[in-house]
Amino acid sequence: MGQPYGVIFGKTYKLYDNGTPNDPTDDTQRLISASGRNVSTSNSDNVIGDPNPDWTGGVMNKLSYKNWALSFLVDIQHGGDIFSLDLYYGLATGLYEESVGLNDLGNPVRDPLTADATSGGIINQGVTADGQPNTKRVNGNNYLATGYAYHPQSEFIYDASYVKLREVSLSYSFPKKWLTKTMFEDISLSFVGNNLWIISKNLPHADPESGLGAGNLQGYSISSLPSTKDFSFNLNVRF
Hints:
mainly beta
C-alpha cells in the first residue's frame, strides 16, 4: 500500500546495526557472516526498485538544404529501475566478465584459496557481527561468489535510464522541373535508420528496453537479445 504501481519486491542486504540509532554510520555497512558471505534479509517484501521513470523525453530536429533533408530523433529516459534476471543467473554461471578479474592481491579471483599471497578468491566488503571489517576470503570460482546464492535480488537492480539515437532519416526530393512532363507532382526518396546507437545506459550487457514484458509485469529484463539496427528505403510519390 502507498507504493507506486509496479514496484519490485525482493531480498536485500542485511546491514550492520550497532545499536546506536543516532550514529550516522548505523545501518550503512553490509553485514558479513562468519563464513565471509553477505547476509541477506530473510523476508522478500522489501521494495528494491521502482520501474517508473522520473521522466521521458526526446529531441527531434530537421535540417534542410535545397532538395535534401536530414532529420534525427533522440529518445531519453531518466530514472526507473530494472531487475536483470540475465545477470542474476549469468553471473552465477560465469557467463559475464564481472565473474573474472583480479582480487586485492593481484591474483585471478578464480584461483584456489591458499594461506599465502598467491591466493585467489575475494573478500566481501562489510563488517562482521562484532562490527569489525571482514577479512575472511571466500572462493571466487563458483556461483557462490558473484551469483544469486549469496547475493540478494537487490544486487541485480540497475538504473534503467538511457539516451538513444532512435532514428535518422536522409531524404531527397526530386526537382519539380524533372517532373513537368510526367504524371507525378512530387517524388521523394529517403533512407531511414532506426535504433542506431545507444548513446548512454547503465544496464550492463543489454539494451534496457530489450527483454521487457508487455503485460503488467514491468521492470524485469529477461532473456535479452542483442538489439538490432533497422534500415529501410522509402519512396513517396504524389500524383
